[in-house]
Amino acid sequence: MKRFIDTIKNIWAIQELREKILLTLGLLLIYRLGSNVVLPGVNTETLTSLQSQADGGLIGILNAFTGGAFANASILALGIMPYISASIVIQLLGMAVPTIQKMQKEGESGRRKLNQITRILTIGITMAQAPGYVANLMAQGVETTVSGQTFWLLSIVVLTAGTIFAMWLGERITDKGIGNGISLLIMVGIIASLPQAFLQELVSKLERSGGGMVLFVVEIAALIIVILLAVALVQAVRRVPVQYAKRTTGGRTFTGNMARQYIPLKVNASGVMPIIFAQAIMFIPVTILSYTAAGEDASGGWLITAFSDIQGFWYNFVFAVLIILFTYFYTAIQVNTNQMAEDLKRNGGFIPGIKPGKSTAEFLDTVLSRITLPGSIFLAILAILPAFAMIAGVNTQFAYFYGGTSLLIMVGVVLDTLQQIESYLLNRHYDGLMKNGKLKGRAVSAF
Predict the structure, then answer these.
(1) What pLDDT is stored for residue 443 in this prediction?
(2) Is 246 strand, coil or helix?
(3) Helix axis angle, 148-176 relative to 15-34, nearest 10°?
(4) CATH class of 15-192
(5) Domain extents in the chain
(6) CA quadruple 326, 83, 124, 68: dihedral sign
(7) CB contact burial 235-265 (16+ within 10 A = b; e otherwise)
(8) Are the beta carbons of 398 and 198 closer than 8 angstroms?
(9) Subcellular localization, per the record (predicted)?
């Protein structure tokens, strides 16, 4: 406890770090306040059906990402998700469009151009999603205090402005605060529902037929174990030894064995993106069938039921298979083994026993494929754990924290933020957050 207090004092003693943390907390508070500001013209007394819709299923997951803003008909109801969608589109286009590939290789200037394109695409995606959200409000019987056309136009403009504002907050946090701003906004939205879900679970277990405090303690212990497994998945790497004929570090030149280093290949190089891709793909057929006559047929109705029941066998089976497939797909996008082999060859490095160039690229690709398989299976298991928690009797809202996107985002963002704080402490000659003064690995931001 004394070490923890000393660490807090050391953090507070660094003026730059203190200002960054306070700025980050202030901007996150503004985001949370905005999540409770209702769209102009909405009768808040008629939001009951919308909030009931967001209690479970895919809509419940979306509501969790926005911190309840979706169910509150907030000005930030679409949250930062359109920006995430735009970022994914740009990454995918980078595989096929030479212009974007060139920008990705231009360093800081290219990054600024891509950011501007992403912002513009975010506005377009938000304006496309906003009418769908307003239509859902009308379908759920939400009443308005203004005329229909005025409400539609006003809501689309406000929802678009809300997403742009959330995007701006995220970028301010990244540039002036601590941590990855976009990821922090998502994490804060997820954590916002944790206290209420925790209390609901506690109250339900203390009821006469709830199982008692012992069962609640067992659930908390299981949750801690799942969190530890998620941390292990995020941090796990396969170190590939690399030998350099000559290496200069810190003004000193090393040769032979002294010049040996490692390439850290992450077991889960794709992060949470496979889960997001899989959820999006599974959401498409349900949405299409719901608005077409095919959804009224026996087969169409079965598909809607099967892919909307997050506790069902077919939902979880297809979900897990899609995650495994998308893990390989996104890892192939993120990790360019050919480029890694070329960089090694250019810098005079080689993997012991492997020829430089094409053979090195093939070796790295083989290693990456082998470690991706257990990583993808483990990721799929984590993704469907909330369904098992619900089946075991855990409250729906609390069960979301037993795995899936929510848990992986929280773990990844927390580790990344702690890594940045750790760097500030070590650069100022303070002890780090951990006993050995160093966090193992490097946590990649959620997005």
Answers:
(1) 44
(2) strand
(3) 170
(4) mainly alpha
(5) 15-192, 194-447
(6) positive
(7) bbbbebebbbeebeeeeeeeeeeebeeebeb
(8) yes
(9) Cell membrane; Membrane
Tell me the CA end-to-end span of the chain in Å, nearest whole number. 33
Count of other CB atoms within 10 angstroms of residue 61: 21
- Tens-place pLDDT, residues 190-219: 888 888 888 988 888 888 677 788 888 998
CATH match for 194-447 among 3.90.45.10, 1.20.272.10, 3.40.50.720, 1.10.3370.10? 1.10.3370.10
**Separation of alpha carbons 182 and 119, rounded Å:** 13
| φ and ψ at residue 439, rounded to 5 degrees | -80, 135
Please check whether residue 269 is in contact with residue 332, taking contact to mean a CB–CB distance below 8 angstroms: no
Cα–Cα distance between 61 and 79 in angstroms, integer?
A: 13
The pTM (predicted TM-score) of the whole model is 0.79
Q: What tokens were used for 37?
A: 């500001």
Q: What is the pLDDT of residue 444?
A: 44
> What is d(CA 335, CA 269) in angstroms, rounded to the nearest whole number?
8
295 to 53, 287, 289, 300: CA distances (angstroms) = 19, 10, 4, 4
Q: Contact, 415 vs 409, CB < 8 A? A: no
